[in-house]
Amino acid sequence: DDAKIPVLFVELENDQNGTLTLYPGAGIGETWLGADGATITLEKGIIKATRGMRNDVMGSASSIPSWSRIKNEVEYTRQISYLGGDNQIQSNIFSCTVKAANKRSTIIIFDVPFETQEFIETCTNNTEKLKNSYFIDQKNIVRKSVQYHGPELGYLTIERIDR
């Protein structure tokens, strides 16, 4: 609260965690920087790219509509690209759906309550099935999410605190 800046808390499945602050300047989305130099770039609160986290997401693209336009189940595609061991980009393409959960809920982030709407995203391809959840506040800010990073790290829990 004293810093008066947004902070992102990120936790890996192995319980390793850290906080990141918004990197100044324009880019391909919102880039958040950790004290160790790791970054997460988000677009609409969805992982767009990571650096410094092992088997990073080199880039991603999605045709998901803005959160405020999702009324019923929506279908779209998502592509996630990784740098493989052979130093080549490998892309996975998924067919996805997203829908709002039945009711709004209050989530608590660092003792601060936020009224949110949960959205559930399911993405599949020939070999993988992903299930992500996003908690969106009335300003269309993703306050909390549990979303797939990749086969090495699994799912990340991301929480955003600012007022």
Could you describe the 3D structure shown?
The chain is an all-beta fold. It has strands at residues 7-11, 17-22, 30-34, 39-43, 46-51, 57-62, 74-83, 89-109, 112-124, 129-136, 142-150, 154-161. It has a 12-stranded antiparallel β-sheet with strand order 5-4-3-2-1-12-11-10-9-8-7-6, with no helix packed on it. Strand 10 (129-136) and strand 11 (142-150) form a beta hairpin. The protein is globular. The mean pLDDT is 92.
Terminal Cα separation, in Å? Answer: 8 Å
Radius of gyration: 15 Å
How many β-strands, per DSSP?
12
Instruction: Please outline the major beta sheet.
Output: 12 strands, antiparallel
Computed structural class = mainly beta
String of helices and strands: EEEEEEEEEEEE
- What would you call the shape? globular
* Total helical segments: 0
Enumerate the strands of the largest sheet in spatial order, edge to edge or round the barrel.
Answer: 5-4-3-2-1-12-11-10-9-8-7-6
- The percent range for strand residues is over 45%
Low-confidence stretches: none
Indicate the mean pLDDT: 92
- Could you estimate the helical fraction of the residues in percent? under 10%
Summarize this entry quickly:
With 163 residues, this protein is an all-beta fold. The protein has no helices and twelve strands.
Protein topology:
Elements: E1 7-11, E2 17-22, E3 30-34, E4 39-43, E5 46-51, E6 57-62, E7 74-83, E8 89-109, E9 112-124, E10 129-136, E11 142-150, E12 154-161
Antiparallel strand pairs: 1-2, 1-12, 2-3, 3-4, 4-5, 6-7, 7-8, 8-9, 9-10, 10-11, 11-12
